Amino acid sequence: MGSELTTLTPEYRQWLAELKARYRQVQLKAAVAVNTAMLQFYWELGTDMVAKQTQFAWGSGFLRQLSADLVRAFPEVKGFSERNLKYIRQWHLFWREAPIGQQPVAQLSAIPWGHHLAILTKCKQPGEALYYVQATQTYGWSRSVCVRPTHLEPG
């Protein structure tokens, strides 16, 4: 009976704490992987939308139709509203010519989509926006902290 593990032993409590910490790390890694994959998809979707609109001279009804078709195909997904498709296109156009070194989406994928929308709304130039992307990565800024007007602007 002395070898029975109970929740009262220090060994069990220590093991449980380690197990919970490992699980939280796995959850975080999974969330980062999902975010990276979604931003990669959004980047490619933005590329495709810009190319199709240019190639076929599709007007503003194109995004409305695309949204309706994607929402019908994936009713559980919230990212295919016409408004979000416009944001994806705008985000792609904003960053595609930016001199940010490596493949843009690789550098941008470390922060959530909501942060990108907030930064896109706040910033007019890619250099300024990149400051907020990097500061969000470095300091773990929330969306509201990221766009607060009291933050020092990049010099």
Give a brief description.
With 155 residues, the protein is mainly α.
* Number of DSSP-assigned strands: 0
Oligomer: single chain
Strand content: under 5%
The class by helix and strand makeup works out as mainly alpha
Straight-line N-to-C gap: 68 Å
Mean pLDDT: 87
- The H-and-E topology, N to C, reads as HHHHHHH
Give the fraction of residues assigned to helices: over 70%
Provide the gyration radius in Å.
21 Å
Topology at a glance:
Elements: H1 10-56, H2 61-73, H3 82-96, H4 104-108, H5 113-122, H6 126-139, H7 143-147
Helix pairs in contact: 1-3, 5-6
Q: How would you characterize this protein structure?
A:
This protein is mostly helical and 155 residues long. It is built from seven helices and no strands. α1 (10-56) packs across α3 (82-96) and α5 (113-122) packs across α6 (126-139).
